[in-house]
Amino acid sequence: MNAEALRALLPLLVLAATPLAVMMGIAVRRHHGTAMALSALGQAAALAATWSGPETASGAGGALLIADAFSHYYWSLLLAASLAVTLLGYGFWRTSEERAEEFYLLVPVATLGSAVLVASTHLATLFLGLEILSVSLFGLVAYERGRAASLEAGLKYLVLSSAASAFLLFGMALVYAETGALEFRHIASAAGRPILLIAGAALMVAGLGFKLSLVPFHLWTPDVYQGAPAPASAFIATVSKGGVLGLLVRFFAQGGAGDLPGALALVSVIALASMWVGNLLALLQSNLKRLLAYSSIAHLGYMLVALVVGGPAGAEAATFYLTAYVATIVAAFAVVTLLSTAPREAEWVEDYRGLFWRRPPVGAALSAALLSLAGIPLTAGFLGKLLVIAAGVSALLWTLVLSVAVTSTIGLYYYLRVIVAIYSPASADEAPRLAAAPLAAAALAAAVAAIVWLGIYPAAVLDAIREASASLARLSS
Amino acid sequence: MYDLLWLVPALPALGFVLLALAGPRLPRAAAAVVGVGSVGASAAVTLGLAAIFLASPPPDHAFTQRLWTWMAAGNFQADFALRLDPLSLLMLVVITFVGFLIHLYSVEFMRDDDGFARFFAYMNLFVASMATLVLGANLLLLYLGWEGVGLCSYLLIGFWYKDPANGRAGRKAFVVTRVGDTAMAIGLLLLVRELGTLDIAELLRRAAATWEPGSTMAVAAAALLLGGALGKSAQLPLQVWLPDAMAGPTPTSALIHAATMVTAGVYLIARTHVLFELAPAVQLSVAFIGVATLLLAGCSALVQRDIKRVLAYSTISQIGYMFLALGVGAWTAAMFHFMTHAFFKALLFLAAGIVIEALHHEHDIFRMGGLRQRLPIAFWAFAAGGAALAGLPLVTSGFYSKDAIVWAAYAGPLGNGAFWALAALGVLVTSLYTFRLIFLVFFGEPRGEIGHRPGWAMSVPVIILAVLSVVAGFVSVPQTLGGFHPLDDFLAPVLPATGHHERGGFTEAASQVLTALAFGTGLVAAWMLFLRRRDVAARIAASPLGQAVGRLWREGWGFDWLYERVLVRPIVALASAGRGDLVDLPFEAAGRAAFALHVAASATQTGRLRWYAAGLAGGSLAAVAIALFL
Fold first, then answer.
1. Is the peptide bond before A343 cis (omega within 30 degrees of 0)?
2. Number of C-alpha atoms within 13 angstroms, CB side, residue A473?
3. pLDDT tens, B551-589?
4. Is the separation of the CB atoms in A305 and A397 below 8 Å?
5. Are B424 and B518 in contact (CB under 8 A)?
6. Which of A398, B8, B86, B200 has its CA 20 to 30 A from that of B455?
């Protein structure tokens, strides 16, 4: 391993070292702030390391991993999100009776899993990364041991995630049986339309679709979002889904799944179903966390449209949409966190009635996040949707594009419903008070700034994404 | 100096912006300075330009200032370009100068109004729009100004919006003129499609080159533009809005609904006269409309009780004269009458404003009387303005301008004996209703208390306009009385001279004598009926026939009645039928369907792990099936 390879993999190494450091820190002194600071520092250092990533480092990870521009872009996105979740966690746990130090241990471990996922070029690393992510998530979701809902959510996630992993493993086995290969590019070079390969790819999509909470593997999503502590929900929505989506984009481009007509048809059907079902489920939802869960189903459906388009344009659209979505969801959950004081979380839409008149900046920030989710111009979400629709139109996917348009309109209804509540006259009684959490507030401010910045001047980010997508195509050719 | 042209619309526009933004916080004095000063500066620039134009005209008697490209699509381009030529200069001088006088008058007239700054903001916006209208080098910019003055007219008619009737009057004006504007917009689109440009000079050149006289396209284009002109200038059949427009403050009536905006239709036809010459049938219909309007409106003016409504019908009637002039091809006569009418009609409205203010907002002329000694300034203003309106021979401007039209109605390119006879009859009617008004208001028994007496700000504009009403006629004196016509020479580069054809026997001098006789008859009849023997007038009015005719005339020949039944009620009925929102049904159904689907989908969220796991397994099976078989 030469120095260049080391530098290419530096973010992963720093990120892997972070939980160790946090663990040692806890062993020396069990203190909330110290644990959080160590974890945040480690993640920030890893994030900084993605900055100086070399152009190409094909040899760095051998057959298992690749640290190309695509990996680096996703790493920086995932690390930014996990750092934001860490800051939210500090705001969330500071009023709690629970011991919260291990939360800061689990976040970097899970992020490591996600980071391995997006860089994997081999089915073994894929599975390894996914399981690192999943196992840490069980702990994160069920972290509030004292609360039945949290435990229930953790248990459901454990059982269903394991079942999904079984389907994924079975799919991999079928693929291996047909092609005799585990490396993506070798799988891709296997010709023909063998039935086992297609069935294997379909089962892999099913296993990964569970993680992305795509219809029909979505049933767990609202229960887990609602039961998990708000920062953990934010983590699932951003880091976990971002990692799996990045992997899927890479697998479709480099693993040859994008050349299988059956797999594309499957993804199209899943995308359609996710857009419709997700938006319809959210329509009259009165719990904000469940609403965001349902809306995530729909948003992943939109991203799949870009996946169906394929090629650099599709990868670009999917990646930008994800970037916008991550910023937006961080902002939304930051507001939930700021308004939650353990043991009561501000999860009902009613809790937000008159928020703007009580806390204008926070109300405006949540409005910005909801407008971005709805895809209103001048926000990141609008541009994401624009890129997806443009990519879909250029590939003549009219059914999917029309569905994006129509279901976005349906989505407008429930986002505006929350916005109406935010600007309604305040109800004086029982309104949740704002927690004094400067770090979480900083994360919120950064996320809102990102939403507006991406919505108004996305050129810099788009350039980076274009480069990342290009690196994806280079290797596959 | 010509480069300052853009200031003429820009200064009032700036005044509007200032007053609109800071108006409510400005003290009245400051608002007045901004409101009057901006129009005054604009008038000063215009007069400076006029002086230079007269001394040394630009090449081809036209100066075009291209400010920026407004819009460009394909090979169509519209510039923000202003064009100064004799026609637009004449309009501009009248607009800014009379506008300035009326602004000055308004400072005193509106002194106690809560909406003082708002009033001046609208008035400034009006002057800016009107200047844009006449200066626009292309029809699109003209249309911008056209809609701008329409908006200001609407805002100012409904200025006292707390009374719903005023709002209704504003709406009526807006909707009725909109009918014409729509025709005009279609006409513009037609011109763009057929000729590929809206630049007026280029457009007229191409039209003359491509269209045969009387060709379908030329007729259609001219007819559609005429539609716009009829709406704006309140001519048959779109004249119904102007009498109601008197709901606005009196200075508004003077500036917008008498002197300037309502003559925009005359300007439009004169500006595009080439198109009308290519469509003789349409041009002839302009003459027919003009002559019919002038008589119908004149009769209506005879029986009104409201002083402002008399003047409103008189305005419709006088614009009818201008249309008649346009229709028979006497282009310069139309513009001449536009100018003199702007002076004497603005004067009459301002004087009426003094009377109304003095009598505590009394509008009914039958409750006035004997104001000659008590309000001398109003009386002399009315005497000068009324004499000009009725056409007192030799000394008033109205005589010269109207005489030119009456003679052209016979001797103009499209003139004939019938037009002449009806125009001369119109002179009689005009004289009759004018002196009826003067005798009822200023003579007879004094009635009513005198309240406010005009100060200098109201008096000075009235005096200036009174002088102009008398002397402005000497810029075009007919051949029979000496033949002095600088106005016609000035306009010659834009508007062709009227080609009078001799039809032996009847001469211009004879026409003038007969017109003077018509004037005299009207004057004497008014004196008899409304001063000497009012009992006779009352008896005529009380007879069954007199009552029926009076009612018909008072209601403006029943056009409102007719439109109410033929247009308004069916449309309202249609709208109420649509109140059930038939169109909305599919959308509501979509919403309901979404809710129903939401309920169905929610049923799958049981919260039970068994069900979720089954969903996962079933979904995976379905995924394999889809991938294999789709």
1. yes
2. 13
3. 888 888 888 888 888 888 998 888 888 777 777 788 888
4. yes
5. yes
6. B8
Closest chain B residue to A196, measured at CA: B628
Q: Which residues contact B42 (CB under 8 A, 6 or more apart)?
A: B7, B8, B9, B11, B12, B96, B99, B100, B127, B131
Continuous segment of H or E residues that includes residue B71: strand B63-73
On the question of pLDDT at A477 being above 50, the answer is no
Cα–Cα distance list, B47 to A399, B42, B344, B522 (Å) = 66, 9, 20, 38
- Interface mutation vs chain B, best among A208, A283, A414, most B CBs within 10 Å: A283
What size, in residues, is chain B? 630
pLDDT tens figures, B404-460: 899 888 888 888 888 999 999 999 999 999 999 998 888 888 877 778 788 888 889
- For residues A181-208, average pLDDT: 85
A99: exposed, middle or buried (C-beta count within 10 Å: 0-12, 13-18, 19+)? Answer: middle
Query: Which chain A residue has the Cα nearest residue B629?
Result: A262
CB contact under 8 A, A270 and B604: no
Confidence band for A334, pLDDT divided at 50, 70 and 90:
very high
Instruction: Provide the number of structural domains found in chain A.
Output: 1
Write the residue in B594, B607, B630 that is nearest to A410 by C-beta: B594
A 259-278 residues with CB below 8 A of B? 260, 262-263, 265-266, 269-270, 277
Mean pLDDT for B21-31 is 85
Two tokens, residue A91: 């705001």
Number of H helices and number of E strands within chain B?
28, 2
**A164 contacts B616? CB cut-off 8 A:** yes
**A467 touching B (Cβ < 8 Å):** no
Contacts of B499 (CB under 8 A, 6+ apart): B329, B412, B413
Structure-token match 């008398």, residue found: B470
Residues of B in contact with A160 (CB under 8 A): 609, 612-613, 616
| Contact status, residue A289 vs residue A336, Cβ threshold 8 Å | yes
Q: Considering the entire predicted model, what is its pTM?
A: 0.64
CB contact A32 to B (< 8 Å): no
Q: What is the rounded distance in angstroms from the CA atom of residue B232 to the CA atom of residue B138?
A: 19
Token pair listed for A315: 């990868």
Residue A88 structural domain: 3-476
- Single-letter amino acid, residue A188: A
- The answer to whether A58 and A4 are in contact (CB under 8 A) is no
> Complex ipTM, two decimals?
0.91
